[in-house]
Amino acid sequence: MKKTPKIITQKIEQRIEKNALRSLHIKNKLIDFSSNDYLGFSKSATIFEGAHRYLTEHNLQENGATGSRLLSGNHQLYDTVETMLCDFHESEAAIIFNSGYDANIGFFSSVPQRGDVILYDEFIHASIRDGATMSNAKSYKFKHNDISHLEEMLKRFQQDGTIYVVTESVFSMDGDTPDLKAMATLCKAFGAFIIVDEAHAVGVFGASGYGALQQLEIQHEVFARIVTFGKALGCHGAAILGSRELKQYLVNFARSLIYTTALPPHSLATIREAYNAMTNDGERASNIKKLHQNISYFKTQLTLHKLQNTFIESNSAIHSCIIKGTKNVKLIAHKLQEKGFDVKPILAPTVPKGQERLRFCLHAYNSEQEMKDVASLLSTFVQ
Asked: 224 pairs with which residues across the strands?
């Protein structure tokens, strides 16, 4: 076996020295405060059995897609599910990608052209940054959720090519939300095209979990929306929502769609059943209401234990407690885990140095006692 290049060894050693080396761990049985399974759909027997039943009834008992969507992999469920997404999210068209990462890579590497400008929130997801890096357009960041700074940037580049502005409706590491109405209005005034990643909003906001943009009734003011199925919907995949022309363009130019094997029928059937669970099943749909009750209860516990000032303000399912220093935040996470709570530390470079944190993800299935106990325990470590 060939020796490992020296630079690889050096980079691993640097991570070890900073106490920031990542490693893979088998899923544990602790009380869940870390997963994105906000509604508990990943464990739903109803969704699992419904997907199996649908595949059997429609003679789609296949283990794989057999090829890319442009070759042999575009099985009939794609059209069924994409039509469902259009109806549910009030979109002219929808196109499914294998993951949210693939969707963002495909969009940002192909849609903005040479001479165009991408303006992105400084805390935007890594997949969007990576897609922008692969683009021929120039990209610049604006201060987090800062409408005034975004306006300055729009004025600066308004004489350039097409401007694309991208944000998230819920930021994955902070759990906060920008003023989406103000941002949409500002982009319209400058003729800029706004793109919103709704990964952590779908299944959480709106009576049926349709996301923050539809809750605000501004979905038609947005050029493109990215919705993902691996968070609250508990399955896998993602979609870009937009115009028919955008879909046609992505089919022809988005390399992460063109050059990958398509999702198998089972993945599409599961997405279909998860959406049905949000809308048609009263018991499952009530999980959204229960999730928001838990969010309110958790915030009450933070105030009770005088922790609110250590947390970033959030009305989403994501609540982050800032604990500076890699060693410190890892130690507190370990202590919480020893007491049975699965709370993960988020370290630099995922977040800026000095902004290390414990990231609490709330779920419809967390009990009030669990939230009360974890907040009480946390207060003994951070005060």
From this structure: 195
H helix intervals, the chain: 6-17, 45-57, 76-89, 100-110, 126-134, 147-157, 180-190, 212-216, 244-253, 255-258, 265-279, 282-304, 326-338, 368-382
Integer CA distances (angstroms), 104 to 91, 197, 244, 250, 280, in order: 18, 9, 18, 11, 30
Phi, psi (rounded to 5 degrees) for 345: -80, 140
Q: Which residues pair with 195 in a beta bridge?
A: 166, 224
Cβ-count burial 347-359 (b if 16+ within 10 Å, e if not): beebbeeebbbbb
> CA-to-CA distance for 90 and 88, rounded, in angstroms?
6
Does the pTM surpass 0.85? The reply is yes
| DSSP secondary structure, 171-225, as one string | -TTT-----HHHHHHHHHHHTPEEEEE-TTTTTTSSTTS--HHHHHT-GGG-SEE
CA distance 238 to 211: 14
C-beta atoms surrounding 179 within 10 Å: 14
Among 198, 116, 185, 205, smallest CA distance to 157 is for: 116
Q: What are the backbone angles phi and psi of residue 99, rounded to the nearest 5°?
A: -165, 170
pLDDT tens digit sequence for 268-317: 999 999 999 988 756 556 889 999 999 999 999 999 999 999 999 999 99
The enclosing H or E element of 139 equals: strand 138-142
CA 150 to chain centre: 22
pLDDT in tens, 125-184: 999 999 999 999 999 999 999 999 999 999 999 988 899 999 999 999 999 999 999 999
Q: What's the CA gap between 346 and 71, in Å, rounded? A: 40
Question: What are the backbone dihedrals phi and psi of residue 251, each rounded to the nearest 5 degrees, phi first?
Answer: -60, -30
